[in-house]
Amino acid sequence: MDAAHIRNFSIIAHIDHGKTTLSDRLLHRTGTVATRDMEEQLLDSMDLEQERGITIKAHPVTMLYQAKNGETYELNLIDTPGHVDFSYEVSRSLAACEGALLIIDAAQGVEAQTVANVHLATKQNLTIIPVINKIDLPHADVAATKAQMEDILAIPSENAILASAKEGIGIDDILEAIVARIPPPKATGAVSVQALGFDSYFDMYKGVVTHVRVFNGELHAGMQVQLLHSGKTVEIKEVGSFNPKPYVREKLETGETGYMTANIKSPKDVKMGDTITDARNPAPVLPGFKEIHPMVFSGLYPINTADYEHLKANLGKLQLNDSAFVYQAESSVALGFGFRCGFLGLLHLEIVQERLRREYDMDIIATYPSVVYRVVMTDGTVKEIDNPAFLPEPTYIERVEEPMVFAFVISPNEYIGDMMALLAEKRGEVDHTETLDPRRVMLTSTLPLSEILIDFHDRIKSITRGFGSMDYEHAGYLTSDMVKLDMLVNGESVDAFSCIVHRSKAEGRGRTLAAKLKEVIPRQQYQVSIQAAIGGKVVARETVSALRKDVTAKCYGGDISRKRKLLEKQKEGKKRMKSFGSVNIPQEAFIEVLKA
Questions:
Q1: 578 in the Ramachandran plot: left (φ > 0), alpha (ψ -120 to 50) or beta?
Q2: What is the pLDDT of residue 50?
Q3: What gap in Å lies between CA 494 and CA 332, rounded to an integer?
Q4: Which residues pair with 200 in a beta bridge?
Q5: Are 330 and 340 spatial neighbours (Cβ–Cβ below 8 Å)?
Q6: Are 471 and 408 contacting, i.e. CB atoms less than 8 angstroms apart?
């Protein structure tokens, strides 16, 4: 189709504002999916997405729409995730578009992730079409939402389209606005074909399937193309588009979105954001892509050590589908061979673990999540540490810097005191507060990334009865009083339980871990001490009492000295046993403690 009749657009919004429901309605209205094949959340094909009601992966779809002017247009939609951990998926999808539908829930108004996504879209110079969704809800407040749009997002409210994706209200207006307001794609004018690979997945029969957006020229089967990042030259086997299932096409022309398969067998050969060009006459690299740096690290180990190679192969396939995920091999005394994996955030970590368990049938155990600390040594060298086991001795450390984030928390007015208390508890400082409307405020604060890892999001939701929302961006490094907390069982350090914490929090964390270990370590023939230590100083201790045989049972009556002699003999035996006995910590104990 000629470029003048093509429109490429994304749908962006905060979590749960109705992106996927709206994309369902667009598919139905354009006749891309027949009524009998329609189902809820059609584009969220992963069972995890349907269960949690969130979008994890961006999904491309090509629709044909006959506009009121009688012309037929090809609309290429990419449905994007809303959660902060998947903002990289969003930025990649926006690089392949000229416009974006911004969905705002009429009942909840502008939220933290809405603001973040608008910034991403304006950075890419996209045309934004605001849509106020869920206007059929009894507590929808359209006037207030329009006012917020103007005040917070600086988008004129008269441009907004009122809609209800569930009821099918305003769908025609949205389609007409896409045709009228979003500019058609323009060729870059390069010497040969330029296409952007913005996503990919692994197919058992076809190998690596790459999602592409053609910016210049055309792609067709039999063509020799070069992947500029890896320098690999491959022959295209097949090109096509999605509706939502893949279907084969003759060629993909300038402005079109679809997929290509080539003889790419290894997931390592494809880099997300790579430029695909003609092998004989290469064009320059397309702009707009950056290497992504993971923020949270955790060790993933197979529960059965024989599964190591299996886990390695599956992580490669998963990385292909999720380019923000990185991994490298490591080993641990307690857990055997495994991988050190990097994630964008905690939800990302949880989703990757869950996908490994479901899609690849892996039994895995994950270590306590940690962030990347910057350690400045006394000789001036700087080391980046993501694993507590590699932290140098305190005598060689001049200072430790920890990663900080700017957190934007939107909360109803009545909970502002509780939110301030939560931020103070997490070692955060509130920089300023801003009143968004009569009901809500936005707190901007700086706090350590390690403090928001575990339960921060959940605590915000429970304090604000579910009405709070947050978004964060990285704010560099700051010197902090960080120490390594070691857990000693029977005097021996267990590396899987050690972590880097702030000195003020070390004692509390040590007590919690020691109490948990006391519950899960089985009793031995002798007393086992569990200690939490910072360097040589023990800050918490628990004792697992010994299993004791009643050696005095055979003494009935007689002198007390006989009983005492037997007890002394037993005590000596236990002392001897303890000096060379080692405590075997069962696998279940690791799993229990890491859950805690």
A1: alpha
A2: 47
A3: 10
A4: 210
A5: yes
A6: yes
Q: Which of 443, 437, 456, 436 is nearest to 415 (CA)?
A: 443
pLDDT at 43: 46
Domains of the chain: 3-181 (3.40.50.300), 194-278 (2.40.30.10), 296-367 (3.30.70.870), 373-480 (3.30.70.240), 484-595 (3.30.70.2570)
| DSSP symbol at 156 | -
Three-state secondary structure call for residue 578: helix
d(CA 186, CA 182): 12
Task: Kindly list the averaged pLDDT for each block of 10 residues, start to end, along the chain of length 596.
Answer: 80 76 80 57 46 55 81 79 58 76 83 75 83 84 84 81 82 86 81 80 77 84 82 85 81 84 72 78 71 72 81 79 74 75 76 79 76 84 80 82 83 83 85 78 84 74 75 79 82 76 84 82 76 84 77 73 80 65 60 57
313-326 core/surface letters (b: 16 or more CB in 10 A; e: else): ebbeebbbbbbbbb
For the whole model, what pTM was predicted?
0.65
The neighbour count for residue 3, using CB atoms within 10 Å, is: 15
- What residue ranges in 52-163 does DSSP mark as E strands? 59-66, 72-79, 99-105, 127-133, 161-162
Please provide residue 163's backbone torsions phi and psi, each rounded to the nearest 5 degrees: -150, 165
* pLDDT in the model for residue 119: 77
Run of H or E residues at 110: none
Q: Phi and psi of 202, rounded to 5°?
A: -105, 125
Look at strands 59-66 and 246-249 and give their pairing.
Answer: unpaired
Pairing mode, if any, of strands 397-412 and 257-262? unpaired
Residue position matching structure tokens 């290894």: 266
Please state the three-class secondary structure of 332-350 as a single string. ECCCEEEEEEEECCHHHHH
Express the helix, strand and coil content of the chain in percent, nearest 5 each: 30, 35, 35
Rounded distance, CA 459 to CA 424, Å? 13
pLDDT at 298: 79
Identity of residue 172: D
Angle between helices 503-520 and 587-595 (to 10 degrees): 140
Residue 68: burial class (beta carbons within 10 Å; 0-12, 13-18, 19+): exposed
